[in-house]
Amino acid sequence: MEIINAADRAFAEASLFDQNPPMKNWPADHNWKVMELHPTSIFVLYHYGGADDVPLDDYYKASPQPAPPHYQQIAVMPRVNIPRPETQQHEQMARWMVHILSWGVLHTISTNLDGAPFGHVVSFSDADASGRIFVYMTKMSPSLRDVDTNPWVSLSLSEAQVVSQFKDGLPCRGEIAEEPTCARLTLSGKLEKVSQSEITLARNSVFGRHRTMWRWPKNHKFEFYELKVAQIFFIDFYGGVKPMSTKQYLQAKVQNGIIEAWNDLYLPEELFAGSGTKCSSTIFPWVMSGFLVAAVAILVLFFYQRRRRAEYMQVEIKDSEKDTVQSGIRSQGGSFTTD
């Protein structure tokens, strides 16, 4: 990141204020600086088969579609039915975010980028509103390769991800993600492989929230990991970072509400044996209807084949009787004629 030069400042500010209108009213005495990120490496993963390293020249030559106005933006995120805590309830607010959100950005110290930070989107679950954070990852992930060298990671979340807080096309009741009243949370600690004794807890938690993960290919060797939270960075109002210990975070109470997830699909009950977690019922009637239709079709086919078999057997019996009569007549020196 570099401070932008004076010649480009007007262009940069116009672009920022167009996309983030509230920035225009931020207090001037906070000594804001306009900075530019000069990328040296671009990591893109948008299909099966692994990530792509995009050449910088191709990146700058690309001509994407113009971004839609704020009021046309559509948030594809979970909807929640859990009320937002009050502003001064910092611990409850942090736990609320961890519970209702299902993905965040996991930051590691990259081994591929000579120690530069690397952010990777991960899906997670908080184990029935316990505050503990579980993920399901493969060694194919660059983040896990980084963890093998340095297990310390950070997971960043933003209230801007919560669709229920959108207003007039903007998140956080009409604000932007960098506004202090739009809560932001970063949890830091070691990412550790889940012990065998807690595999069931992790599996039920993660698969219960992300209901397609259980189908992910086994040959990719996915495993469960837990972020052992040691430090917490939290802002939800003006006045700077709000101090919060891990103990305060874990002891806070949060309602265990229903998440209306987009990937709410049927799951085999055996995945949740003894967990108390229920499978989704939204697709169950359709599954049962499919089984019923298939069963009826099989019965119809069975009786149809049985009837055809009986008719075939009757024809065989008649032919056999004719052969017997014909043989008897011929043995007596007569003749046998059929119409």
UniProtKB/TrEMBL annotation:
Q: Does the keyword Transmembrane apply?
A: yes
What domain of life does the UniProt record list for this protein's source?
A: Eukaryota
Membrane spanning residue stretches: 283-304
Q: According to its record, what are the GO cellular component terms?
A: cytoplasm
Give all residue intervals belonging to the CREG-like beta-barrel domain: 2-61, 85-250
Q: Which UniProt keywords apply?
A: Membrane, Transmembrane, Transmembrane helix
Q: Does the keyword Membrane apply?
A: yes
Q: Pfam families this protein is in?
A: CREG_beta-barrel
The record's PANTHER family line, in alphabetical order, gives: CELLULAR REPRESSOR OF E1A-STIMULATED GENES, ISOFORM A, CREG1 PROTEIN
The protein's name is CREG-like beta-barrel domain-containing protein
